[in-house]
Amino acid sequence: MSISVRKNNLRRPDKAPARNILLRPALFMLVLGTCAAIFYAYASARSLETSYRLSRALEQQRELREVGRRLRVELGNLRSPQRLEQAAQRAALNPPLPSQMRELP
């Protein structure tokens, strides 16, 4: 049995590598572009998440400063001499006698 091979069906060694030479850089660029797009999407998502976290933290800071301001005002009111005198009168307290006073060194 003999097999005949047509010359047109044979691969020419000079044309096959040329196609591979053009295909490899294109494939590399496609993979590189895909990786860059995935990284860009990841970085954008992280940036957006960080922006939301920063916004929430700034809002919380503003609320805490307002609470601190209110507490300082309330502390000032609680320590005021007029309020203490009124509370002493309501409790029927009298000023201390000289014998009840002690001097500290």
UniProtKB/TrEMBL annotation:
Superkingdom field: Bacteria
Chain residue ranges for the region called Disordered: 84-105
UniProt KW keywords: Membrane, Transmembrane, Transmembrane helix
Low complexity composition-biased segments: 84-93
Segments traversing the membrane: 21-43
UniProt protein name: Cell division protein FtsL
